[in-house]
Design goal:
Rossmann fold, binds nicotinamide-adenine-dinucleotide, binds magnesium ion
Length: 368
């Protein structure tokens, strides 16, 4: 197609893009391999997991456990797709940004915990961040060709998780299997539990703040139970742009790896005649994690890191049957309340904030 509105894409015919895939055996990792294999311009140059075998993955460099930055040094990738779960992804995120290597970011916990450090590393190194999280990919796409002063607010959507509409009384004794039954997305266990507490939307709120540089007052959250609207941007003229599609992570993964190209994916076109779109406000009384995340984000400094660390400990305990569902938020609230405001000047400060928040959460678990 030609015409002045269409930007021609020079990268399509460019050299092979070499992808280092971290968290290759997980939910995002597997879907990334599918996208890479289907695209002639993409190849895996390295794959890593935490402990699971990489035997069935075809990549020249592979690493199970160990230091991810050593693997990245050897691989010298064009893009790092960070799909590690949790704070463990932090070194890889900072490595990519510091070395001017593009970062396709699924590992939201690293940006939440280390937002200020990550932005400083990006400033020095020049690595670009391409969001893989579906909401942030949606926002990124809606924001193309605009500038921050034209944006009134970002609107993150969420499904509300499997417990949407329930009261606190109805949540006192929910089992891990119930929290793991997500209504619209199939994902790894940690993010699925985070979706059931709304901690995931809380992490995404902080992620959006660092990715797009807007204050928290300009980032809203709305529930859209079928996960068809992936997020919206409201502009100052009263217009709102939404990104819609079936909930399928292959779309944002493909976009992050092939931007500015839009490569074909196997995702079916939306059938608009079968859709009804409902929106509702999130219930922050029943699900306090979203409110706690907003407060931690507003506090800034190491508070988002503390929120994340305490949540990781609490979610692991809930999955092991050692902590009731509603106590996840209590553990996080207490860790935040017992932590003084502090800046993370360097990675050591941040590692210490993470360690002490985990210790506070463990103390709380011992008496729970
Ligand atoms: P998952 O549990 O399915 O997979 C996690 C992967 O990380 C595994 O390959 C595991 O081996 C690896 N890993 C864990 N610790 C590691 C370590 N120390 N070093 C190297 N690798 C390690 O998780 P997931 O659902 O694929 O989620 C991954 C990340 O993507 C999370 O941050 C999550 O919030 C984010 N995300 C996931 C989805 C989704 O649909 N699954 C959507 C949006 C964002
Ligand atoms: Mg998301």
């Amino acid at each position: 197609m030609s015409g002045t509105l269409w930007v021609s894409d020079t990268r399509q015919t460019g050299p092979m893009k070499r992808v280092a895939l971290l968290g290759a055996t997980g939910s995002i990792g597997r879907q990334t391999i599918e996208i890479v294999e289907a695209h002639p311009g993409l190849e895996l140059c390295a794959a890593a997991s935490g402990s699971s075998s990489l035997d069935d993955i075809d990549a020249p460099l592979k690493q199970v456990g160990g230091d991810l930055t050593e693997l990245l040094e050897r691989a010298q990738p064009d893009v790092v797709l960070n799909a590690v779960v949790g704070f463990a992804g932090i070194h890889a995120t900072l490595w990519a940004l510091e070395h001017g290597v593009d970062l396709a970011l699924a590992n939201k916990e690293s940006l939440v915990a280390a937002g200020d450090l990550a932005l400083a590393a990006q400033e020095r190194g020049g690595g670009g961040i391409l969001p893989v999280d579906s909401e942030h990919s949606a926002l990124y796409q809606c924001l193309q060709g605009t500038s921050p002063d034209q944006v009134a607010s970002l609107v993150l959507t969420g499904s509300g998780g499997p417990f949407r509409g329930r009261t606190r009384d109805e949540l006192t004794s929910v089992a891990p299997e119930e929290a793991l039954a997500h209504p619209t997305w199939s994902m790894g266990p940690k993010i699925t539990v985070d979706s059931s507490t709304l901690a995931n939307k809380g992490l995404e709120l902080i992620e959006a703040h660092f990715l797009f540089g807007l204050p928290y007052a300009q980032i809203e959250v709305v529930i859209q139970p079928t996960s068809i609207v992936h997020s919206l941007v409201r502009f100052r003229d009263g217009a709102a742009l939404a990104h819609v599609g079936y909930p399928d992570m292959r779309v944002p993964i493909s976009y992050a790896l092939t931007f500015p190209e839009r490569a074909p994916t196997p995702v079916p076109p939306l059938d608009f005649t079968s859709l009804t779109l409902q929106f509702e406000a999130p219930d922050v009384e029943t699900f306090p994690m979203l409110r706690l995340a907003r407060e931690a984000g507003e506090r800034g400094g190491t508070a988002p890191c503390v929120f994340n660390a305490a949540n990781e400990v609490a979610v692991a305990a809930f999955l092991e049957g050692r902590l009731p569902f509603l106590a996840i938020a209590d553990v996080v609230a207490e860790a935040l309340a017992r932590t003084e405001d502090a800046h993370a000047r360097d990675l050591d400060d941040l590692l210490e904030a993470d360690r002490s928040a985990r210790a506070l959460a463990d103390e709380r678990l011992a008496v729970a």
